[in-house]
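Why do we bother with holo predictions? Because pocket geometry can differ from the apo form. Keep that in mind while you read this record for manganese (II) ion.
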Amino acid sequence: METAEARYQSLLRTIARHAPSTDIALVDKAYRFADAKHKKQLRKSGEPYIIHPLAVAEIVVEIGLDTDAILAALLHDCLEDTDASYDEIVKLFGPTVAELVEGVTKLTRVNFSTTEEQQMENLRKMFMAMSKDIRVILIKIADRLHNMRTLEYQTPAKQISKSTETMEIYAPLAHRLGMQKLKWELEDISLQYLDPKGYQEIVDYLAAHKDQDDQFMQAIQDKITQRLESVGIHGKIYGRIKHVYSIYRKLKDQNKSVDELYDLYAFRVIVDSIADCYNVLGHIHDLFNLVPGRFKDYISTPKPNMYQSLHTTVIGDQGIPFEVQIRTWEMHETAEYGVAAHWKYKQGGAGAGQEKEFEWVRRLLESQQDTEAEDYIHSLRVDMFDDEVFVFTPRGKVISLPAKSTPIDFAYAIHSGVGNSMVGAKVNNRIASFDVQLKNGDIVEVLTSKSAKGPSRDWLKICQSNQARNKIKQWFKKEKREENILHGKASFESELRRINIDPSVLQNEEILPNILRKVSFDTLDDMYAAIGYGGMTAVKCVNRIRDELLKATKSAPKEAATPKPLQSAGKKSNAAVNSGVIVEDIGSCLVKFARCCTPVPGDLIVGFVTKGYGVSIHRCDCPNASLNIISKQPERWVKASWAVTTADEPFDTSLEVDCRDRDGLLLDIATVMTAQKIKMREINCRTISEGHAVTSLTFSVHNVEELNAVCSKIRSVPGVEQVRRGKT
Ligand code: MN
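The structure, written out:
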């Protein structure tokens, strides 16, 4: 059995070979620290645990990562499996190393329990989204590679699940990051556990033909070498059998047996310059017969994962086809270690350059669109991770939500029924507030109750997803029509008042149809309901009908003037003039003004035929003259309008003023009234709740313009919150 110390020496040798500039003192410190922390822990193989971090660090060195990544690899299981703390690692090795270790730990905690393809894609995305630093993923892939290499010590069930994960998550990620060598090894080991028979068949076939293959490859290699030497091109030629899993895929895809397989062999010619690549290509085509349609120039058009090479397939003397890949040394590094190789090249300008580094990865992944049959992974755009967050259900299903989503969004993403009966939420097993922002990898649980009251209107402001918003609105639309009408009416009328339009104008039957047409609702209640549940905003509705309303408001006095001929005609008995009011269709009659709404000239009015007291005049927006009430006894309601009165007679009216209770308020209001030369009849103030008061004013004005002027003056008194017509 390998001792830890021997393994450590091996790591140091690998460092000396691949990364001589590494700070060995720090590596030594990290090794001693991790070794002490993992002391007494054993791997399933019976080896001391530290063997694993040492092996992972060695892979990380081979990939070409920097000192921080090597330290993080040595420490990568400390947070999860020992009593080491984040702060401890910060203190000993700095914040960058600590963050890398924590990043790897988070990925380790991600629990895979699914095999659905869509879920796999989400998991891959979550992996990328969770690893803000690309080194985290690279270390994690190295970690997985060593675990796969030692998978024989695990239980059969674990072997299958780890192999599936590796095939679905880690190998595609390695491919996306351009690390072919790692990808191949991950795939071959996984296949060994997932289809032992299929794997063995290929391995046996290759073993049985090994001598023959070696001979064949040696012959080809010699032929190429001789040619290059004779023309003075400096290059190195390697021959290899394609990796087991790629042969396996080809067999499955083409439904063939191994000996029928087209190209098993691949040769690689590595040269010093791009010009040499094309020269070599010419010589290859001269030496062997070209298989048409198999030439690909990935030098002029690199693959999205940065892969560059010339590919061609040719047939030698023995009639066996083989592929030749031609590339430069730099292209070769990139092909073997992808992103990591790039890292290696750019290393040195540490720190500031890193931002750009990630952007490069991001761009690479954005443009990734593999069309080759063997690349079964889907396209992946990293930029979209900025506006997505991936979380788990308690059963391990991944749910993708817009960034900043809350438990409310999560609940509605599960089902509208879950959202509507939600009474609480747990995030990572802790009770969480509804508006907490979910993070990648969070496990979210919704607590529901049959007696839940349903969503609250605040939820509309809290949730981030349109899905949740629409479902909540839907609920309000269906469940709460009455309440919606009230809410909607209130906000609609307050919006009208904000732009100085009296809501009573809506009661004008002549303009009502126009207005409803403009907002596309059948009734006012429908409009209020829509505003109430949030399907429409009050501002939008008011904007659409503002012109109509202003027209109506302005023309109100003119309308009053239209009956003038009637009045002067006098005898035309379908109207009666009394106290400045014309009541249509009724002869001379007694008119009185309703105490509840105290109309003044300019108000839209309507008459109610009382039993014995003539006609009582209400404002159209008086609650006692609502459409609802009118519809109960329509025969007793009559149209009424103001006559143009020359008599300068004032009308009594009253206002209710909501205000903050304060000393001197009544005096201030009275002063405002006096300043406008308004004749006061009554003023009193009553406190209705802590700090709040209602002031009732009764006074006389000549018309609604004068009254509006009074209202706006009162509104400007400090502490006044609302001014309403009428009495309570
Ligand atoms: Mn590990």
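The pocket of manganese (II) ion is lined by residues 52, 76-77, 143 (CB under 6 Å).
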